[in-house]
């Protein structure tokens, strides 16, 4: 974390603790959250509100993945004539985002876009925002569904989880012990994917694979590096690791690339091509997956702008006009899906630059 960020974080923390009292309004925005704060009916032809101010609140400010996502979101808001900004904590712990939400409410942002570190810890503050007419979009990692109007999901959660098991199974030849190196224990997205991974592993074709441990690197590079090392050293017959976090997979690959496990223990998961390129080229990693993070932010930026302008309310069946991404339908529980993930390997990784 840069010194500027540290100073800013400290400043915000101090300023906002003072403002915390205003966040305890107990109003219930209603199940599904779809119309909270925007009680008027959605008008798809409503003009974009001039001078939109939209804030992007990532899991943590130093995560390179989240920075790409938020730059995509800020670009979308700019396209619409508004101003986007990124603010957020230096760690991805459950309640680290609450004071930031409270500040954004005080600043009267036109919408808050958040990747929730915990589905429930952020819910009261987000509900407070919605009750004051500030729409909430979650992206990447959802909050409790009644604490936001729209969730922009990077891909179908079930498909992300199941495809991770398919990838590791192919790489270890369908048998052996595997472990998962996740982000934080509370992360909604990782936990949802892990549930689907566990379910996928109950299928007969995976009966030779045993999931022996789920470890948590907290989306912290050093901790992830140490957790990867501990997994490999404590489970001598480990065949593979799935790390469904860009921070975890890159730290694990860095450790493995100079260890005796390189090429012997397989590592897959979700990573950015730019962080993983050298580890694919040096034979540490064969294949991994991801979506385009900038497009995720871009879609979330359009969703927030459309909510703030009254074009959508977050109800199932509404259509979102999302600039260069075309149109997306809002699905069940206010979910909008970006698209299927891409699998990267030595054959295609050089075509991608993010
Ligand atoms: C990390 C974060 C993020 C996740 C990606 C794949 O950067 O945990 O939430 O979506 O990995």
TrEMBL record:
Domain of life: Bacteria
GO BP annotations, alphabetical order: rhamnose transmembrane transport
Pfam families assigned: Peripla_BP_4
Residue ranges, annotated region (Disordered): 24-45
Residues covered by the Periplasmic binding protein domain: 54-311
Molecular function via GO: carbohydrate binding
Places the protein is found: Cell envelope
Chief location: other
GO cellular component: outer membrane-bounded periplasmic space
Protein name: Rhamnose transport system substrate-binding protein
Species of the source: Kibdelosporangium aridum
Organism lineage: Bacteria, Bacillati, Actinomycetota, Actinomycetes, Pseudonocardiales
